[in-house]
Every structure is written in structure tokens, then in C-alpha cells.
Amino acid sequence: MVTGGVLAAKFRRDLRHRPAQLVAVVALVMLGVALFGASYDAYKNLDGGYRALFDRYRFADITLAGGDAEAIAREAARTGGVAAAATRTVADVPLRMPDGATMVGRVVGMPAGTQPAVDRVKLRDGAYLDASAPDGVLAEKHIADHAHLRPGSKVQVWRDGAWHGVAVRGTATSPEYLWPARDRQEPLPAPGSFGVLFAPEPLARRIAASASVQGPNQVVVHYTRDGREDAARLDAALTATARRYGAPDAVTRADQPSNAALGEDIKGFSELAYLFPALFLMAAGVAIYVVLTRRVARDRSLIGMLRANGFPRRTVLAHYLATGVVVGLAGAAPGVLLGLALAGTVTRAYTGAIGIPDAQVSVRAGTVLTGVAFALAAGVLAALAPAVAAARVPPAEAMRGAVPSGRGGRGVLARVERLLPVTRRLPAGAWLVLRGPARQPRRTSYTALGVVLALVLILVSWGMLDTSKATVARQFDRIQRQDAELTLAPGTGSGSVPRSGSGSGSGSGSVPVPSVLADLARQPGVSAAEPSANVPVSLEAGGRAYSTALVGLRRDTSMHRFLTSAGARPLPARGLLLGSAMRDRLGLKAGDRLTVRPSTPAGPRAGRRRGSRWPGSWTSRSARSRTPRSGRPRRSRPASARRPCSCGSRTAPTGTRWNGPSRPVRAWSPTPTRGRSSGP
Questions:
Q1: CA dihedral angle for residue 125, residue 128, residue 129, residue 130, rounded to 10 degrees
Q2: Are 106 and 197 in contact (CB under 8 A)?
């Protein structure tokens, strides 16, 4: 009882002796626990709301494009583990907003009057699609916010060689486009460059017909809960079924552009949920260690007296450990409350930024207990070394107080003085500064560690911002060097584009593509204009497949650079140039062969990989006529039978149309202004 009373009185006196130090340490612990609670709970809320959104709106587990969509849907519906399979029509066409701005738009067909069985939408305002309004559409959230579309707004769609107006009945949020990614190769579209409209299926088919899409061209499949647990098997089975019916493209939920982009973002958020709180708690632990080490040094004589009066080592050890426990609990209590309050704010801000319509905010007992455990661990572990040192002090030696070192000139400073005689001329003040850290190297190193951790917290935050800016600058200043893209109407003739208001194809109402390039090159401020083509394809090698875009460029292009560790390289004269991500995914190396399937049931072509660096695939115009078809030599064709700027390792004869590709013209000028325009 006496022992407890004496140590309790000493403990209270120690806490009152230098409160500013303890308050600072408690504040660090509180910030660490609050950051953990806010970030981890926000991550769990975000992840839970994200998954619940997929279930509520029946987000597709796999999307099958091309082929006989009706037959594929029937086969998929009969497959075990499939909850629903639905067909729809999807086409990319030019859109014109009420303010006159144009962009590449995507029209997605949906049943009028009722939500689809797969990939439903949440209506934000206005009314849903209705058969009584055959030209009414829903505007997806991002295009609605950018173009200020509201119920009653008019949007024009390029169809049959002319602009046709459609009426916006409402705006909606879709799990497919929480992030407005056009495809995996364009995960960060420029604002105002891409938008989605949901249209009644009959209207979507009429619009798609102008892009050479006949009838439904997609099948979206939603799995049951049990089926999702065996998703890999179902994905493989449905992909094989789709291939039998001529569908070349299968995109799983994991590879769906929006989900893939947001999935990486959420994954990074989960890592930060631990990183920053851990840094704060480490800094708090170092601060506790320094404070208690100094306290033990100051109490050296008192510790000796206590030990001489019969206090056991474990009592002295527990006394100093108690300080760490109190500091940890004192920081954990307000930290937990602050973290719970911030978690809801962070969750709502994050879900609002990425467009999740329903934010889920909940309090998790596991987060509270983990935060308290982190705080206690930081306090106890930091106090352990000073407490052990205090308990091991021999009573007689401790009661003598501080005594001079018995090393007799064997210290670090003494050796430096002997090696460098010039240091003897240093003033006494300099030696006083140097001897403090030299006599307490452990305390000095931990103090330096605390400073390092503080700098890390600052540099990590600024480094993330700088890295993002540097990545964007590298991508759009050194790699994609065009300042604007003009996307021509899909389905036009091989050598010409229609004039506004005229039909597609060549003739008196058409403008040859070379003339378009020449006109662009003559514009003030334009340094160069080049044609390019973009074709959605599926690449296959070694039993693995990946849906991507095949981009056709001039071999001497100045619009796009291909950077490797050895520097820039040109496009190959033959074969394809693959990105490093696709190389690793397909398990390829330079010289390997792969199969290229366009997103139309036109049969595969074979190509040879020539190198890799960046995600995506590129080919030169000169490579197209020499690429063998399915391993057989290709007959040469006259130039008139080949499309200019063929995209991919195949040459399409005149009159052949791809399923929805655009034919962009890329222009580069020395000015830093960037923009994108699309239109017929």
C-alpha cells in the first residue's frame, strides 16, 4: 500500500512537472488514431458502398461484344450461376451539345418504361425513358454536369450523314460510368471529350445503324451470388460460348474500364489508410521514447534510492511503463471520437467525387478497438526501453548521480581530436554543442528519426502531387504530343468524309481525307496534321486474351513518341508494338506471334510483336500489307483496295467497315493550349 501510494504520488508529480511535453506527445497519438479511424472507416465505407451499388443496380459481371447477340444471351441465360443476361445496342457517335460543343459520345440502348435486367441506372432528376417519347434520352451524370444538361435540353446526334436532335428526359448515374472512361486505353478522358447517353433500344439501333452496327451488339451478364464465387470458371465458359457465335470481345467486371480505374484508386486508398496513421504513430512513439529517456536520466538518483529501499525491479519497470500507457490512452480517446466524425465527412466527399449515388457511413467496433490498440502499442513499446533501463540501474551506482565517463579519452570526439589536430582550435561553445549528442548517441539518433518522420509526412504528400503532375506532363508533352483531335464520323468511306448535311461516302458531297489534313495544316498556329485510326480488338496469345485498342499511325509520326529505358524508338516496319503492361499480361516477348481479333465477326489475323514499353498496341501503315493472315502468305493488293492509315495488322478492302471505330486526325502545334474536337 505504501509502495503504491509513493509511486502514485510520484507519477502525478511527473505528469505535472512538464505538461507541455506530454501534451505534444498526446496530440501526436491523437492525430495518428484520428487519421487511422477517418481513413480506414472511409475506405471500408467506400468499398462497401461500391460493392452494394453493383448489387443494387445489377452491374454486369461480363460483357460480350459482337457476334450473334441473341443466341449468346440465350445460351448465357441457361448457364448455371447466371442471374440474368440481356442484349443491347451500343455505338460511339459524334454528339453536339446545346452550346455547340462537340464530343465523341456513346449511345447505350435500354428498354423504355422499365429498368434493364442488367446494368440499371439511378435517376437523378427528370423522368425515365418512355415509349411515348421515342426520341427521349437520359444523360449520364458526367456529361450532364459538364454540358449543363437538364430535363428538356436538346442534344444532337450525328446519324445518317446529318445532325438529329434528341430530348433529354432526365439525368442518371450508372455503375458502368462512375468514372467516365471510354476504354482501358483512355482511362482519363479530357473533360468534354466523351459522354454517354442512354436511349430507348429502337432509337439506339437507328443511331448505331449509321455506324454500321446492325441490331444488338452487346450481351451483358449478371451472376448470382454463388456464381460470383466461381467467376473465373463462368467467365471462361461464357467467353467460349460467345466465341462460338462469333463474338470476339469479352470484358470481365475486373477489366471493365470504369471499374478497373476506380478499383486501382480504391486499392491505393486502402494502402494510404494504414501508411499515414502509421507514420504519425511512429513519430509519437519516438517522442514518447525521448521524453521518458530524459525523465529516466533525470530520476537516476531517485531510482537508486527507491531500489535501495526495497522497491523491486518490476515495480520500477511498471511505473515508467504506466506513463506510456497513460499517454496512449489519453491520445486514443479523443482520436477515436475525432476519427469517427471525420470518417463520415471523408466518405461523403470521396463518394461524391467519384459519383457513387448512395454513400454508406457506419461505425465499426473493429476500427475503434484497432485504433486504441495502435495507440497503446505505440505508448508501451516506446516506454519499454527507458523503463527497462531504469529497472536495471544498480542502486549504489544510481545514488552517486552523474559521474564522469571512465573511458579516458576513448570517446568519439577524443578520437576525432587526435586524428584532426585542427579541431583543437574550435571554440569551447562548439565543443559543448558536439559533446551533447556524442554522449547520448541513442537519444540523438531517435531525435533525428523523429525529424525524419516529420519530413517524410510532408514529402510524401507533396511527392504524390509532384508525381501526378510529372506523369501527366510526361504523357501529354513527351508521348502524346497532339494538341487536338478531330474525330471524323464513323462508317465513312475509305478515302473521304461527308460534308455537313450530306450523306456518307464519297462523291460530290464528300471531302477527301488528304484535303482535310491539308486544310488543318494550313490553319494558323498548326505545325502538323496527321491521320490515325483506332480499332477495338482482342489480342490472344498462349490461351490468354485482352481487349484493347489498336492504333494505326504513320511510321514517321511526330504526334506520338514511344519511350523505352534506352530512349525513344520508332514504330516497327512489320508487326505490332505492344505496351509493357500488355506484354506481361499475355506473357509475350519480342518476336512472338499473337492473334488479333477485331470487334466484328470477321475472323482473326496474325501479327508479330516487335517490342514493348507502354500500354496499348500500335502499328505502322507500312506493316499492314505484309502481315500474314492466319500464318499464310498474304496476296498483294493494289493501293486502291487498301484503306489509308489501316489500324491493326490487317488491311480492310474498300467498302469494309469496322464496328464503331473513329478515324481521328491528330494535330500538333507549338502552343501549350490543348483541346479536343469531334464531329462529322
A1: -120
A2: yes
CA 521, distance to chain mean position in Å, is 36
pLDDT in tens, 247-296: 878 888 988 888 888 887 777 777 777 777 777 777 777 777 777 777 77
Identify the bridge partners of residue 252 per DSSP, sorted by sequence position. Answer: 62
Contact 653, 527 (CB under 8 A): no
Highest mean pLDDT among 15-19, 133-137, 421-425: 133-137
Instruction: Find where cell 448515374 sits.
Output: 173
DSSP 674: -
| Residue written as grid cell 509502495 | 3
Q: Which long-range contacts (CB under 8 A, 24 or more apart) does 427-435 make?
A: none
| C-alpha cell, 179 | 468514372
Torsion sign over Cα 436, 437, 439, 443 = positive
pTM of the predicted structure, to 2 decimals? 0.67
How far apart, in whole angstroms, are the C-alpha atoms of residue 118 and residue 87?
9
pLDDT for 672 equals: 31
CA distance 674 to 668: 9
β-strand partners of 549: 536
CA–CA separation, 556 and 534 (whole Å): 17
Q: Using CA atoms, how far apart are residues 283 and 449, in angstroms rounded to an integer?
A: 8
